[in-house]
Write a structure and sequence with these properties.
It contains 16 helices and 13 strands. The protein has helices spanning 18-24, 28-46, 71-79, 93-102, 151-163, 180-188, 228-241, 260-274, 278-284, 309-312, 317-329, 376-382, 398-406, 411-423, 444-461, 467-486; strands at residues 11-12, 60-65, 83-89, 108-109, 125-128, 167-172, 193-200, 213-220, 336-339, 348-349, 363-367, 370-373, 392-393. Helix 2 (28-46) crosses helix 3 (71-79), helix 5 packs antiparallel against helix 16 and helix 15 (444-461) packs antiparallel against helix 16 (467-486).
């Protein structure tokens, strides 16, 4: 079922300082060149074949599921790759409305579980950031792939088997490694795809947010330039070549304290703070702990003292206790970045970088000149979105934007994944969105898939099979292999 189109006449925009805008946009060409140089270096030593070309003339046909506010689309724009956004799918209204103003797809679905596969248009690049709930380490009672919330992942696999793009990219939390072999086997679709797995973190690229994620880059076997082993080695080599030795602190990528968005947040938190229970503040100030954390060298600048919880607008007893314990444990001058909603042991960083942005997180940053809670727009900025060129519907609040940021992929990380996927494709112009017999395969499963497709092609040439029936038979082997993993 497609989403009805809604009129969104009232919008607002945000301005950012010039030095921040320069960090959020304009990085695409340099990143592309770095990936290209690393890929050529690895190729010359291991393959010696002709380098495939990223498409620059024919638009790349793209489809996204669990689209959110479309990190892959912003990444493609920054990389300068021409594309056509064929379809998107998002169940939440707020990110759909934001996407409608900034990167509206030709076709938008509301629910991946309710749409018909026959309605999904063909694409060459498919990106799916399927929900992390079944795989998160925070959910101790999860049944993983048998969890009810894993239905969305199964739907993504069915979409992959049906659409058969040249390249598909999937992203999730590191907890998915508990079922890594099963997930990889499902994405291989019975030998139709060669899957590369890569741990990626924006900190590795010099970004001021710690966000470890596992990316799966699947390349259709008939258009892949090398086998799975070589692809995995090349991906790791390229990723390691991108490492930045000196990541920048988070205060370099935030709004100034006198920005209207920040001032509005400050007024609200001050008002809430004044209505909080004062006895909790007095009680927690009595706890004195020796300094446990020494300030790291030259990151984020020094602060004379960490602010009090009331100054930060923290109101609940838990938040106040959380902050005060950290405040007492940290030496003055420690750049402290905290998600005050997380448990104490995993909530903070003292290296000038922000912990993983989450949908419901409340982030307190004391780094350089920044001594306050973050606003929703800043969470988008830490995810790499060029907010200075975005528009937002009037009804979208700061907390809604923060939730969208927490559910998004980091723009620069998905850009690297896209570049890697395109590097492994022989020629995107000859990689049709649907169909195509797997060629150059090595495994027994891939060989069987090749024989099945060849039989269908021969029958079609003899006039015995219609094109639609051909496509259904090609899908059948992949879909059967995928479904057997889930018992459905």
């Amino acid at each position: 079922m497609q989403c009805p189109k809604r009129a969104l006449p009232d919008v607002w925009e945000v301005s950012v300082p010039g030095h921040v805008a320069a960090l959020l946009s304009g990085w695409g060409p340099e990143l592309s060149q770095k990936v290209d140089r690393a890929w050529q270096c690895w190729r010359d030593r291991n393959l010696g074949s002709v380098r495939p070309q990223v498409p620059t003339r024919c638009p790349l046909i793209v489809g996204t599921d669990f689209s959110g506010i479309e990190s892959p689309i912003f990444a493609l724009r920054e990389l300068g790759i021409p594309f056509r956004h064929a379809f998107a799918c998002e169940c939440r209204a707020a990110p759909r409305d934001i996407a409608a103003l900034n990167c509206l797809a030709e076709c938008t679905f509301a629910d991946i579980l309710k749409r018909r596969l026959s309605d999904v248009p063909p694409v060459q690049l498919y990106v799916s950031g399927f929900p992390c709930t079944p795989f998160s380490m925070l959910h101790h009672d999860t049944k993983l792939l048998q969890d009810k919330n894993a239905k969305q992942f199964r739907a993504s696999v069915r979409t992959l088997a049906h659409v058969r793009p040249a390249v598909a990219i999937f992203e999730n939390v590191l907890g998915v490694k508990r079922v890594l072999s099963k997930v990889t086997k499902a994405l291989e679709c019975g030998g139709a795809y060669r899957v590369v797995r890569l741990d990626m973190n924006p900190v590795h690229l010099g970004e001021p947010q710690n966000r470890p994620r596992l990316y799966f880059v699947a390349v259709r076997a008939d258009v892949a330039i090398c086998n799975q082993k070589h692809m995995q080695e090349a991906a790791r080599f390229v990723w390691e070549s991108l490492r930045e030795r000196r990541p920048r602190p988070c205060d370099s990528q935030l709004l100034p304290s006198n920005h209207p968005q920040v001032m509005a947040k400050h007024l609200v938190t001050r008002r809430l703070s004044q209505t909080g229970k004062q006895k909790w503040k007095e009680h927690h100030q009595k706890f004195v702990l020796p300094p446990l954390i020494k300030p790291p060298s030259a990151i984020g600048g020094l602060t004379s003292a960490l602010p009090m919880s009331a100054e930060l607008g923290l109101t609940s007893p838990r938040e106040i206790d959380h902050w005060n314990r950290l405040r007492q444990a940290c030496s003055p001058g420690t750049p402290l970045c905290v998600d005050i909603t997380q448990s104490l042991g995993r909530s903070f960083r003292t290296d000038g970088r922000v912990p993983t942005i989450t949908p419901s997180g409340k982030f307190v940053v004391v780094c350089g000149s920044v001594r306050r809670q973050l606003v929703g727009i800043e969470k988008l900025m830490l995810q790499g979105f060029p907010v200075q060129s975005m528009r937002f519907p009037k009804h979208i609040t700061s907390s809604m934007i923060g939730a969208c940021a927490g559910n998004a992929m980091h723009v620069k990380c998905i850009a690297v994944a896209i570049l890697l996927g395109m590097s492994f494709v022989a020629e995107i112009a000859t990689a049709p969105p649907q169909g195509g017999a797997p060629g150059g395969v090595t495994s027994a499963a891939e060989a069987r898939a090749t024989r099945n497709v060849t039989k269908v092609r021969v029958a079609h040439l003899r006039g015995g099979v219609t094109p639609n029936l051909k496509r259904r038979r090609v899908e059948s082997a992949s879909a059967t292999a995928c479904e057997s993993l889930f018992g459905t």
